[in-house]
Amino acid sequence: MGGSKKVSRRDLLRVTGAAGAGLVLGAGGHAALRGTADARDAGDKATLLSSLQTVAFHGNHQAGIATAQQEHMHFAALDLVTEDVSEVRELLRAWTGAAARMTEGRPAGDENTSEFLPPDDTGEALGLSPARLTLTFGFGTTLFEKAGEDRFGLSGAMPGALTPLPPLTGDVLDEGRSGGDLCVQACADDPQVAFHAVRNLVRISRGAAVVRWSQLGFGRTASTSKTQKTPRNLMGVKDGTNNIKAEDGELMDRHVWVPGGEGMPWMAGGSYLVARRIRMLIEVWDRVSLGEQETSIGRHKYSGAPIGKKDEFDPVDLGAKDESGEPLIAEDAHVRLARQSEGEKILRRGYSFTDGFDAERGQLDAGLFFICFQRDPRKQFVPLQQRLAANDRLNEYIRHTASALFACPPGAKEGGYVGEGLFGRI
Amino acid sequence: MPVEVGPNFSMSWRHWLGSALFAALALVVAGCGQPPPENGESGGEGREAKEETAESTGGETTGGETTAETTSEETTSEGTTAVDVGGSPELGAAADEYEEYVVEQTALLEKSTKGFTGAVLAGDVEKAKRLYGPAREPWERIEPIAAALGDYDPNIDAREGDVPEEEWRGFHRIEKSLWVRDTTEGQEEYVRQLMEDVTNLREEVETVELEPVDLVTGSVELLNEVSAGKITGEEDRYSHTDLYDINANVEGSEVAFEELKPEVAGEDIALANDVVEGFDEVYEELEQYRRGDGWVSYEKLDEADRRALSQKVDALAEPLSRVGQVLEG
User: Fold this and answer.
1) Where are the alpha helices (DSSP H) in A168-260?
2) Which residues from B are below 8 Å from A21, CB to CB?
3) Considering all CA atoms of chain A, what is the largest pairwise distance in Å, rounded to the nearest integer?
4) Chain A within 8 Å of B315 (Cβ-Cβ)?
5) If 0-12 CB within 10 Å is exposed, 13-18 middle and 19+ buried, where does residue B130 land?
6) Contact criterion met (CB < 8 Å) for A203 and B21
7) What is the ipTM of this complex?
């Protein structure tokens, strides 16, 4: 044949497989082959150059909590369909292996060499940068006990902090979009990288677990690092000004990480994740005057400063009064009610979402996928949300439509797997 | 009915190399019903799935047209010499067994369609409705094979909107008349065409030679049929007899897998067990909808029911998609 370059059959198959269509090798085929190989080299170089953009998967804590918040999220909750605890353990092992690879920017599995088999990795992240991908896994209450049944012999290991959230005023929860036995939170600066990770983890779980619900998030609604600016949520206001910052190791230890000696030993170094799908009544909010919007929030819309102040980071003075003696920050303003007592502080890590268009109402289906991490939701999220649910002026413009609580165990050590502390003992 | 499988495979298979990537292209039709390839040496029995390889660009193809869609290792030859080019006798035998099954199913299809169309011609709406679901089952068991041959799929099984209105015929056209208009009137031409198509299919299938790769891809395709379409109830949108189709798809998939199972188990026993377990789970899920000889209306399944069934099918199809490793050796 005409080409001078020797191409092995294996290479050909690999490339044609990656291209998704058969190629007939001739001169043109060679050109196409070279093009693909060049693209791959470029991808490798990009991967190398962006090595700074990887977040270590292994460690004392799972990544994706203290990590400076990425721009995109794909969250999935799964239900186990197996009754065999060893299959759950195998799933966690397989997930850990694939997660470690993907966060390094590598495919979930080995490159495919058989023309008769589907590729191990689905391929859409090939050549993309790792985009600071983090994968955070969690366990729901129903893993330990479901309908009064101890499914996997784990009920004795269920932490008190995983007690289901009490009903909260105003909740209109869709059960199908709430809860779940397991969760994976994928965060990345590239939405395709986050999607790819969840897709491949779900694929790996097939036969052992099924997706219960999933949520895509775009645009972080919090900053979790001093290096990040405060972003705006879909109400157009700055969100998360007073968030805990990952650099505050002491605050993280006090409010986010479960300390050794508290609750179940397998959770030491872990954290509890609460997720709330908060639908914003966008059309209603958009008809609200600027004054009422600011009163509801308790901050000026453009500067993000507390009412009566100039700068976003000016302290919130809840006692400040106007000339007629009325509080500057309304009694039912979000800022006032969301002000956390020392013991209630949480690490917020939410994302804006839209699921497109709500055909029933003819309105945008969008809002805030609220995520927070904490040491014990019973002492942090629950009292905070009880106060907000009862009185927050914002409640007129939002609906909590789904809710979930997960125990995120500590990070995996090299060679170990996420959840080993729980599953390794049985 | 599943054909008896001869499990007397003893030789371990190592060197069989597939002839094409896709079942549709690996399908081989010998002789009648198709114009013979214009190539002397094939003598009317030539293979049509031919390919160029890195080693043989041009000049070396041995009959039939070169297709850009196939990229494949070896040019296969006629059945008698299949072993000589590295074929596995076990897999070859599996393909032969499956061929018999396909032939058997098309014969059943001809019979069941005759019963169904007979009721339509007799103007017996109730009887026709009763026979509609069961009549389609043999078709659904072997659909990927039949669909790879000519226009049988659009002619026999097109749903409304799949083809231009004036070309729409086959089962679903008659289905619409029966369930939407509650009549058999005006169906005579569709009945005649359907019988003709089914008979032609049966005759053509008798000449088909299948390759092991057809079993591998066919078994997965049958489940993809369920996942991609039938799970929504769009297949039998007027009669809601979808469970007849779905169950038949699963049965057909299982037969193809069963033929390959000894080879799969020899390579990867865990994979074989996963697939067997997956079929059990799907059948168990379906069982609750069985009523006598048939199935409940698909309308009885709510969203959660359909999702549960869909997820069982996905759980089965994932390991099944890895069965192709037996073709690699």
Assistant:
1) 191-205, 249-255
2) 69
3) 92
4) yes
5) middle
6) no
7) 0.75
Q: Which of A12, A116, A203 sits opposite B54 (nearest CB)?
A: A12
Chain A residue with minimal CA distance to B59?
A1
> pLDDT digit string (tens) for A389-404?
999 999 999 999 999 9
Does A13 contact B278 at a Cβ distance shorter than 8 Å? no
Model's pTM, two decimal places? 0.79
Q: Do A116 and B69 make contact, defined as CB atoms within 8 angstroms?
A: no
Q: Is B311 on the interface with A (CB under 8 A)?
A: yes
Read off the pLDDT of each residue in A332-336 and give the average, rounded to a whole number: 95
- Choose the closest CB to A24 out of B18, B68, B73: B68
User: If you count residue pairs, one on A and one on B, with CB atoms under 8 Å apart, how many are there?
Assistant: 65
Question: Regarding beta strands B294-295 and B290-291, do their DSSP bridges make them parallel or antiparallel, or are they unpaired?
Answer: antiparallel
- The pLDDT mean for chain A works out to 88
Q: Who's near B99: CB < 8 A, 6+ residues apart?
A: B208, B209, B210
Nearest CA in chain A to B50: A24
Rounded Cα–Cα distance for residues A154 and A166 (Å): 22
CA torsion, ordered A52, A55, A56, A62, to nearest 10 deg:
170
- Whose CA is closest to A396, among A194, A224, A266, A235? A235
Contact B300, B288 (CB under 8 A): no
B205 vs A338: CA distance, rounded Å: 72
Q: What are phi and psi of A374, to 5 degrees?
A: -165, 170
Please name the member of A1, A22, A116 whose beta carbon is closest to the beta carbon of B69: A22
User: Which of A342, A328, A333, A303 has its CA nearest to residue A393?
Assistant: A333
